[in-house]
Design brief:
Elements: E1 8-14, E2 17-23, H1 27-32, E3 34-35, H2 45-55, E4 62-68, E5 71-79, E6 95-103, H3 112-120, E7 130-135, H4 142-145, H5 149-162, E8 166-168, H6 173-176, E9 182-187, H7 193-203
Parallel strand pairs: 3-5, 6-7
Antiparallel strand pairs: 1-2, 2-4, 4-5, 5-6, 7-9, 8-9
GO molecular function, one term: acyltransferase activity, transferring groups other than amino-acyl groups
Pfam family, one: Acetyltransf_1
InterPro entries: AcuA, Acyl_CoA_acyltransferase, GNAT_dom
């Protein structure tokens, strides 16, 4: 599959100043930028910065960033699902996962997450993909946001809806392990019926097990 990527950008005026939402950005661009110290959700900031640079080198990968002056203050990643996850079992070239989205705490509340998703979908090539995201409550910053599980879930759903992702049912054991967890997806306009059927089979792999 030809993983076309067309760069788009949007400038936001916030209380902190102008922030540029842009991407997909290359590994070279990521190397030239600073990485905000508040981006600690997955790894220590220097390690996560390095991880994003490596991800950006993958042919299918897309990384969009929120940039404040010369620093990354938020990002979203899209890439093929982890080989250990069920979503990779069908080896679908047109199924990618929104693997991570993070905004530095100092820059939250300005709609950066929503805008990262909206700018992601401005690229017409996204109409060729099924985009999924798996939301697990244990990854959420409940302490930092002071939200309960259900309010955080509503916030996440609203943000994902801004990128066109909708809730989808599944029998995936990890997702089913807590009612706040969920699968969300966006099926592009040019995705063929066979791919949609494959995705449905991935969502319900245990339906014939009793």
């Amino acid at each position: 599959m030809d993983h076309k990527k067309i760069y788009h950008a949007r400038k936001l005026r916030t209380a902190k100043g102008d922030i540029v939402i842009e991407g997909p950005v290359s590994s070279h661009v990521l190397e030239t930028l600073d990485f905000n110290e508040g981006l600690t959700a997955f790894r220590l900031p220097p390690q996560q910065h390095k991880a994003l640079i490596e991800i950006a080198k993958l042919p299918e990968a897309r990384i969009l960033i929120a940039r404040y002056n010369h620093a990354i203050v938020g990002y979203v990643t899209y890439l093929y699902p982890d080989p250990l996850e069920r979503w990779s079992e069908a080896k679908m070239e047109n199924l990618i996962e929104l693997g991570a989205i993070e905004i530095s705490p100092a820059f939250r509340g300005s709609g950066l997450g929503k805008n990262l998703l909206q700018v992601s979908m401005l690229d017409d090539a996204m109409e060729d993909y099924i985009v999924i995201t798996t939301e697990y409550y244990w990854h959420w910053d409940l302490k930092g946001t002071k939200l309960n599980i259900w309010d955080y879930r509503k916030m996440m759903e609203k943000m994902m809806n801004a990128g066109g992702l909708q809730w989808y049912a599944t029998d995936d054991p990890e997702i089913c392990s807590h009612p706040a967890n969920c699968l969300m997806a966006r099926i592009g306009k040019r995705v063929d019926p066979d791919s949609i059927q494959q995705f449905d089979r991935l969502r319900f792999m245990n339906k014939f097990m009793y």
